[in-house]
Design a protein that fits this description.
CATH superfamily: HPT domain
CATH topology: Four Helix Bundle (Hemerythrin (Met), subunit A)
CATH class: Mainly Alpha
Oligomer: single chain
Number of helices: 6
Order of helices and strands: HHHHHH
């Protein structure tokens, strides 16, 4: 009896598992998994510091730094399948010089639950990829 979940039927809210094939395909499956997991682990190791840095930059009106950090988070999310969340960071990146920073800080704070959910989904997806060595069922 196969106890592995069928990831094609999974209902991820914040993670687009197709990003794995979009950004990490074209090389041998085991290497693709290794590269994705390495990228995801780097994201997981740095996301809290980057979120804190973004919040601080917005609070201190350090707009250039806020734009840079929002851009970095957006790119990471897109690469890993966080397309929906990436849009929030795109809005922050594009609005820093146009909207009051307090509004953007509120937007960032409001995404905290979604960020936590994405992280949980990302960890689950990483475990699945590692267990199947990239052979998606």
């Amino acid at each position: 009896m196969n106890t592995q979940p069928n990831m094609n039927q999974s209902k991820y809210l914040h993670l687009d598992k197709n990003a794995f094939e979009k950004y990490f395909s074209g090389i041998e499956p085991k290497r693709s998994v290794k590269l994705y997991v390495k990228t995801a682990n780097l994201f997981l190791e740095t996301i809290e510091a980057r979120l804190s840095g973004l919040a601080t930059a917005l609070k201190e009106y350090n707009n250039q730094n806020a734009i840079l950090i929002a851009h970095q988070i957006k790119g990471s999310l897109l690469s890993l399948g966080g397309t929906v969340l990436a849009d929030a960071f795109r809005r922050i990146e594009m609005s820093v010089n146009l909207a009051p920073n307090e509004e953007l800080s509120t937007l960032l704070e409001g995404k905290r639950t979604d960020i936590n959910q994405f992280i949980a989904e990302l960890r689950e997806w990483m475990a699945y990829l590692e267990s199947t060595q990239g052979e998606i069922h």
